[in-house]
Amino acid sequence: xxxxxxxxxxxxxxxxxxxxxxxxxxxxxxxxxxxxxxxxxxxxxxxxxxxxxxxxxxxxxxxxxxxxxxxxxxxxxxxxxxxxxxxxxxxxxxxxxxxxxxxxxxxxxxxxxxxxxxxxxxxxxxxxxxxxxxxxxxxxxx
Length: 142
Known about the structure:
Elements: H1 2-14, H2 24-48, H3 54-66, H4 70-90, H5 96-117
Helix pairs in contact: 1-5, 2-3, 2-4, 2-5
């Protein structure tokens, strides 16, 4: 739960910058983040049931906040769907592996959100640097 709150805090810090104002690398990070959200959605549904919408709702808020152009919006949606399909394929049922994968996916999402949050705000105020102690994710189990 604490990790989820940290991810949301980092994501919220990135919100003031619209997708159109982002560099190519930042736009790619957005696409990567949407894949993580899709995978998280599938893993959450495996353990919490098909009505679980937490990560899908966050994806919708991300698109609303970023206001991406048509091409980027399509890429973000396709990436979310690909992450969802992959998560569902690899972890069709809840178990220890599913919960571990969800934790690792949350760490990857936090890293991407942190990278996006380090963009200077339009006001010119640089975001606060994260704590020196950061967890890094293992590669996604494939």
